From TrEMBL:
Skewed-composition ranges (Polar residues): 1-16, 451-462
Species this protein is from: Lepidopterella palustris CBS 459.81
Name the UniProt record assigns to this protein: PH domain-containing protein
Lineage top rank: taxon: Eukaryota
InterPro entries to which the protein is assigned, alphabetical: AH/BAR_dom_sf (IPR027267), BAR_4 (IPR046868), PH-like_dom_sf (IPR011993), PH_domain (IPR001849), SLM1/RGC1-like_PH (IPR046869), Slm1_PH (IPR043453)
Region (Disordered): 1-26, 409-492
Biased composition (Acidic residues): 17-26
Record-linked Pfam families: BAR_4, PH_20
The PH domain, residue ranges: 298-406
UniProtKB keywords: Phosphoprotein
Coiled-coil annotated residue ranges, if any: none
Length: 492
């Protein structure tokens, strides 16, 4: 007797593609297929239970009652498409039972008692096992499929929201709230898509486990059937030679069924539905979605800056981004997957005032609009002190922010030693620190010819030489280097 075949079907996904964010496949299709198969096996065992029960009654009523036995197996098998119709399988076994039962007309009362007390319970217990297997399938893989559908619906809603506001970006010239910034929305899509893929892969692994366990379970069903039929033959062996020969033929047909015969036929008939466990799981790198990498989602500059706290006056390092929508967003990290990437702070630069640059330091005054319209109404303007890792990096950030800001002043950030003749910026330039700032877009492509400082000529006036860092401040105001903004995107 051969062991169950472990070659599994070849389908990777039912209806979806590796490049689709939300595949159109039916996640419960595999679960329903296995539930139908369990129903088929259950009804097959019910047929045997009915057959043996009717045989016990037939032993009491002799040949006349045997006509009732024949009726229990005269109907076609329910879900018969799940069984191989060729000889050597379950369907062939039932056909053999029908033909032999036709010739059995006599039995004995004692035989009926033994059938009822020892043979029938074997198949009743097997029937119960199949029911429990169906409950296990429903609570396990069936529940996980619902979780996948829920995760896909959430992802689809956020993709549609991204499409709505990327379209609004082009029609409104980039004017929108911080929470609807396409850059933020796209990061939200990536976060939910990552959760969706984890649910899909968990569901896929559950289905593979169920699929592998079905081969052993079906082998167990057939082995129990063989055991029950073997005991049944022992009970009826005391009857006449003719009856014994007919039952022997019935049992012999059941025992000749290979444990993997029905399973092999099942996977051949359903190789387009069952999952191929050797196929690779879904990967975020192979997925695309509408408006991915739209120009509204690409930051003008991004990287780490230090910002002075309000109470402790200590500088904390965070991840900052200036978007084409003219927002300066603050994030704890640039990781899209650890948590939902919602900005900790958002400044709408056209409503902000940018001071002058002093070495690696510059200030921006404005309201935090990250809480939406209600939060924006009650929030107060604050002057935020920023510090880059080097003076060169500060010039790059200041230039990008200056072009988007509503007003630029000559007010310089405070320094640690204002009376020192040595410029803080020159000291920082002699000892540069590593910087991970990225200039991700050219200011000319994003803002066009509309220069935010055109209405504020004070931004181009030279600083007074009396300022402690006057020479450097004059250079920052009159001749801010633009090479940092125009250079190719990358890390500095």
């Amino acid at each position: 007797m051969s062991s169950p075949q472990t070659n599994l079907p070849t389908r990777t996904f039912t209806n979806g593609s590796d490049d689709e964010a939300v595949p159109g496949e039916d996640t419960s299709e595999v679960t329903r297929l296995f539930q139908e198969r369990l129903q088929a096996w259950k009804h097959a065992i019910v047929y045997l239970e009915d057959y043996i029960t009717a045989t016990e009654k037939m032993q009491n009523a002799h040949g006349k009652e045997y006509e009732k036995v024949l009726k229990t197996v005269s109907r076609p098998l329910k879900e018969g498409q799940h069984f191989d119709q060729a000889l050597g399988g379950v369907a062939g076994m039932f056909e053999n039972i029908r033909s032999n039962t036709q010739g059995i007309l006599n039995s004995h009362y004692d035989t009926a008692k033994q059938i009822k007390g020892s043979i029938l319970p074997i198949f009743e217990r097997l029937h119960t096992e199949i029911k429990n297997k169906n409950k296990e399938l429903t609570k396990g893989a069936g529940k996980q499929s619902k979780a996948v559908d829920k995760a896909r619906n959430i992802t689809q809603k956020h993709i549609e929201l991204l499409g709505q506001y990327t379209a609004a970006y082009d029609s409104t010239g980039g004017s929108m709230s911080a929470t609807n910034d396409p850059y933020v929305l796209q990061r939200g899509v990536m976060h939910r898509l990552n959760k969706q893929i984890m649910e899909e892969n968990n569901n896929r692994q559950d289905l593979i486990t169920v699929q592998n366990s079905f081969a052993q379970f079906e082998a167990h069903i057939i082995q129990v059937m063989q055991q029950g039929m073997g005991q049944f033959m022992q009970v009826v062996s005391s009857q006449t030679e003719q009856t014994r020969a007919m039952y022997g033929d019935i049992v012999g047909t059941a025992q000749r069924i290979q444990t993997d015969f029905e399973w092999n036929g099942f996977i051949k008939r359903n190789d387009g539905i069952l999952i191929n466990p050797s196929a690779p799981p879904r990967s975020l790198s192979n997925i695309s979605f509408p408006n991915q990498n739209h120009r509204a989602t690409q930051p003008l500059i991004a990287g780490s800056l230090e910002r002075k706290g309000k109470l402790l006056k200590k500088y904390d390092t965070n991840y900052y981004v200036v978007t084409p929508s003219k927002f300066l967003h603050e994030f704890k990290t640039d990781d899209d997957f650890a948590k939902d990437p919602t900005p900790e702070l958002s400044l709408y630069l056209p409503d902000c005032i940018v001071g002058g640059i002093n070495g690696a330091k510059f200030n921006v005054k404005g309201k935090d609009v990250s809480k939406g319209k209600v939060g924006n109404t009650f929030s107060m303007s604050h002057e935020l002190a920023f510090k880059a890792h080097t003076s060169s990096a500060a010039n790059q950030w200041w230039e990008v922010i200056r072009q988007a800001a509503g007003q630029v002043t000559n007010e310089m950030p405070e320094t640690s030693a204002p009376g020192s003749p040595v410029s803080p910026s020159s000291t920082e330039e002699r000892q540069p620190a590593p910087l991970n700032t990225q200039v991700l877009a050219n200011e000319k492509e994003t803002h066009g010819s509309a220069h935010p400082t055109s209405a504020h000529p004070t931004s181009a006036q030279p600083m007074s030489a009396g300022v402690g860092d006057g020479v450097h401040a004059t250079d920052a105001a009159d001749a801010v280097p633009t090479s940092g903004v125009e250079r190719k995107p990358g890390e500095y």
